[in-house]
């Protein structure tokens, strides 16, 4: 008697990934829709020979929507949204492999792979002149104030000029790259009165200023590795007459009177003459007409 026995396959195996823990470094300037990890390195196998369904999620807050898979049966991971190193520097993705579609009432076995994505900062920003003020929440744009200084007319300064709010200084905001910055004057100095040190940014004089007119210099900071990455700052140099005397107050002590209940911005009156507003004045022998 021959007995034919047919073995019916039961769904008793879990999909298995070749690697359950992967690490990938992704440059910040990777183009949208680029493949991050090819499907060959992500596909799972199932001893039951079932069709495998994939799902990708992230467990790091604020990193949703950047990475996705090509389809429910294609685990290839691609970049779905442009990266920004200032927003996040790493994320962890979970790739699920199931032997039944999501929502199925049948018994489902699930395999999981963990994918750690590290964002590598790219050279995307031009130099920033310091000090500067951030104008957005993610600190990706920093606006600097103009530099100001002064020189005496017909007088040659041999030292670097003192500027406000500080010396000319720029940095590469892509700080993990920190590319070298060089400086140059690109406008506002037709007579070549001033020069800037290419390496330090120190502003010095080549010759005396003979006109009382102010100079409005345009100083450019350029990255050595890429001349397309540059910023320009304004430096106003006022030309003044040399001062030999300090200002002096006309009185060492001023006494004033105010009244209870006065509105803001009301006058303070002279203590010895309550009908006259208190005035504090100073003079300077170098500027008798001021």
Automatic annotation (TrEMBL):
Subcellular location field: Membrane
Query: Do the record's keywords include Calcium?
Result: yes
Q: GO MF annotations for this entry?
A: beta-catenin binding; cadherin binding; calcium ion binding
Pfam families, A to Z: Cadherin
The UniProt record lists the Cadherin domain at 18-129, 145-249
* Predominant place of localization: membrane
Keywords assigned: Calcium, Membrane, Repeat
Give the GO biological process terms. Answer: adherens junction organization; calcium-dependent cell-cell adhesion via plasma membrane cell adhesion molecules; cell migration; cell morphogenesis; cell-cell adhesion mediated by cadherin; cell-cell junction assembly; homophilic cell adhesion via plasma membrane adhesion molecules
**Family matches, as CDD domains:** Cadherin_repeat
Can you cite an annotated GO cellular component? adherens junction
Q: Which PANTHER family match?
A: CADHERIN-23, CADHERIN-RELATED FAMILY MEMBER 5 ISOFORM X1
From the Swiss-Prot or TrEMBL record, give the protein name: Cadherin-related family member 5
The record lists the organism as: Apaloderma vittatum (Bar-tailed trogon)
């Amino acid at each position: 008697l021959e007995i034919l026995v047919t073995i019916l396959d039961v769904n008793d195996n879990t999909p298995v990934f070749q690697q359950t823990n992967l690490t990938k470094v992704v440059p910040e300037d990777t183009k949208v829709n680029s493949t991050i990890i090819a499907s060959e390195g992500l596909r799972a196998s199932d001893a039951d020979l079932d069709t495998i369904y994939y799902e990708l999620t992230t467990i790091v807050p604020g990193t949703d929507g950047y990475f996705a898979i090509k389809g429910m049966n294609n685990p290839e991971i691609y970049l779905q949204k442009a990266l920004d190193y200032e927003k996040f520097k790493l994320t962890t993705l979970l790739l699920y492999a199931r032997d039944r579609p999501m929502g199925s009432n049948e018994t489902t076995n699930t395999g999981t792979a963990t994918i750690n994505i590290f964002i590598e900062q790219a050279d995307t920003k031009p130099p920033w002149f310091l000090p500067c003020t951030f104008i957005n929440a993610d600190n990706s744009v920093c606006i600097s104030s103009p530099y100001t200084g002064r020189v005496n007319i017909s007088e040659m300064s041999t030292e670097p000029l003192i500027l406000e709010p500080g010396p000319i200084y720029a940095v590469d905001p892509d700080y993990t790259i920190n590319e070298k910055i060089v400086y140059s004057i690109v406008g506002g100095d037709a007579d070549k009165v001033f020069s800037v040190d290419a390496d330090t940014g120190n502003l010095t004089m080549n010759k005396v200023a003979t006109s009382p007119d102010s100079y409005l210099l345009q100083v450019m900071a350029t990255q050595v590795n890429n001349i397309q990455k540059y910023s320009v700052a304004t430096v106003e140099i006022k030309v003044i007459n040399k001062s030999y005397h300090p200002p002096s107050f006309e009185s060492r002590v001023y006494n004033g009177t105010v009244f209870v209940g006065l509105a803001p911005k009301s006058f303070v009156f002279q203590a010895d003459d309550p009908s006259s507003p208190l005035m504090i004045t100073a003079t300077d022998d170098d500027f008798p007409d001021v």
